[in-house]
Structures are given as structure tokens and as C-alpha cells.
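yo, Cellulase/cellobiase CelA1 is done. seq:
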Amino acid sequence: MTTNVLLGLYPDVFVAGAAFSGVPFGCFATTNGSEWNSDCANGLITKTPQQWGDLVRNAYPGYTGPRPRMQTWHGTNDEVLRYPNFGEQIKQWTNVLGVSQTPAYTDTPQSGYTRTRYGGTGDRAPVEAISMSGVPHNLPVDAAAAIHFIGLDTPVSPTTPAPTTPAPTTPAPAGACRVGYAVQAWNTGFTASVSISNTGTATVNGWALAFTLPSGQTVTNSWNSTISPATGAVTATNVSHNGTLSVGATQTFGFQATHTGNTAKPTAFTLNGTTCTVG
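structure:
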């Protein structure tokens, strides 16, 4: 169920997902404060593919980028989230991904299992659905098949080629520290991964990295550091296990934050009062 929700709400974050014993995006929503939707659970909510697809599209108005692929598994004897939800998911995601509801490929990967693929015949088609005959809600999870469909078992080649220009003959000047800062952003938030390298000549015992977050950015949590305050001019300080920064060594930390449209990086960093190079 959560896979359907996440892929519908965050198409800019996920490439693909595998839903086991789920329901369509928007099916379980209630308006009376209840946490359980019996009509959805019992497979009594049916919609046209267009109606299901509109629920997903309206969850992120204006989004025009690629949509994640969907793999869904369901047992015909599901006693908790009834089997009709399987077909409704297929209707929804084929519509969202703009492919035909007529299977492009059908096979039997094992006894009692019927696999259909939509919009393609390969093992990473836009939509893949596995119906499991006689299987209840607590179905056996084929993790390897889900991992393969998502693409996590395939090595990823670097998208940026290595530089071909010769290295400069004179090293660029460096301060006593160097900071790397990488951002992974989505519509209302981002995560930042920060590295601090000691390029000086003495070990740092206890570090504090100061920088200013661009306007609209607010830290919500962090790891391998403590960050205060949550916005504006902030300072990240070490935690108990990573306070020592030997000469030539690097420590990393990260944080999650919200934003109001600006995901720019800080422009300057100081480590214990010393200005660091960036990059």
C-alpha cells in the first residue's frame, strides 16, 4: 500500500517500486477520520483507468517528468486486501504510465503464478503484475525479482565522464580544510551529504563547521553531527565517535531539510574558524 502511495506522491524521487498485497493510490483515503477503509480493503472501490490515473496526477500538480515503473504482486485468496485491488492497480499504473491495459507479454514464472507485462515485454517493463493463485495476504516475497525489476542489481556507470584535460602543473592553493557538499532534492525537501577533509598540518580534535543555509532552507534532522540552529547561519559539530580529524583524513555527515524552492548550496564554510576550500 505504501509503495503505491510513495510512487504516486514522489515521482521525482523513485525510479520504480514493487508492491506486495497493495491497493491503488488513493483507494484507502478516508474523509471521516478512520484509519481503515473497509470498502477499499474488500475490493469494492472500482474506477476507470482515467479516474485512477487522475488521482495520481493530481497529487503532484504540474509535474511533467518521468514516472516510476510499477511491479505489483497479489494473492487470489487475499483475505485482508481483496484480490480486485490487483486489477485496479493495473488499471491505475498503466494509465499513469501511458501504456495499454492489454498485456504485451504473459508467462508463468512458477506453478500457480501468472505474470503479465504492460507497455513492454522485457523484465523491466513499465508495469509488471504477478497474480498468485490460492495465495493469502501473507504472500511469499520474491525479493530478488523485485530488486531486479527496480534495477538495483545492475551496476551504474558514472554519468559524468572523467576529465580529459591534463592536470595543472602547479597545484591549486588549499587552506587547512576542504569541504564537499552534495544535494539530492525533491519537490519540498532535500538531503545533503557533507565531507570535511583536513588539508592542514595538525590533527583537529573536536570540529565545528559553520556555514549559512540559503533562504527558505530548514534542517529537520542530521546524522554524524549536531546542527544548530535549524536555519540561517548554522554550525555542525561532531558527535562522540567522529571528533578526531587527522591530517589527510576526511569525516562525513549529512542532514535532511525542507525548502521553499531554493535548493542552492552554501557558498562558504569555516572549520573551527578557518576558511575552507570548497570542492
